[in-house]
Amino acid sequence: MADVILVNSKDFPIGTMEKLEAHQKGKLHRAYSVFLFNNQQELLLQKRAATKYHSANLWSNTCCSHPAPGEHLTTSAQNRLLNEMGITTSLQSLFSFTYKTEFENGLIEHELDHVLIGKFNASPLPNPAEASDWKYASFKEVSNGIKLNPEHYTFWFKEIYKRVFKFILSN
C-alpha cells in the first residue's frame, strides 16, 4: 500500500506512514472526500467494492482517498475520481474536518478530511475494484436511507452529507 501524509490538527505535515499501518495505529493523516452533483442537485453515490479493506459494500460519497506525499490534494482527488469512477471534472474545496472511528476489523480511521465538490451530469464508468454500484440521490433520498438503514452507509459520509447538501441547496 502507498504512504499517507501524517498531519497535526492544523493540517501541517509531520511525516509519512504506510497507509495500512496508519489505519492500524490510528494516526491522524490527510484525506479527501469528493461529492459530485448533477443539475438536479442530486449526489452521485458509490457503493464501495466488496474487496475494500474497510467499509466494503457500503454506500458513500462519489469517491475518497488520500493524497500521496508531495502530491497536490486537488490533483490527487481528480486522478482518483478518474480511476474510481471514470470521471473528469473540476473540483472546488468546501471545508475540512477531523474524525476518528474504529471499525469492526480493528482498523482506526483518523483523518483530517478535505471535502471537495463538483458537477457531473452523466453516467459514471466505475472501476469494479473500487465501486460495485452507483446512483444519483436527492437530499431527501439520502436522509431517508440513512435514517432507515444507517448501517448501509460509511461512517464519514454520515458525518458530513448534511453539511454538503446544505451548501449545494442554498447556492
TrEMBL record:
One of its GO terms (cellular component) is cytoplasm. Residues 27-159 form the Nudix hydrolase domain. CDD domains: NUDIX_IPP_Isomerase. Belongs to the IPP isomerase type 1 family. PROSITE patterns: NUDIX. It holds the Pfam family NUDIX. InterPro entries: Idi_bact (IPR056375), IsopentenylPP_isomerase_typ1 (IPR011876), NUDIX_hydrolase-like_dom_sf (IPR015797), NUDIX_hydrolase_dom (IPR000086). One of its GO terms (biological process) is dimethylallyl diphosphate biosynthetic process. Keywords: Cytoplasm, Isomerase, Isoprene biosynthesis, Magnesium, Manganese, Metal-binding. Pathway: Isoprenoid biosynthesis; dimethylallyl diphosphate biosynthesis; dimethylallyl diphosphate from isopentenyl diphosphate: step 1/1. The lineage of its organism: unclassified sequences, metagenomes, ecological metagenomes. This is isopentenyl-diphosphate Delta-isomerase.
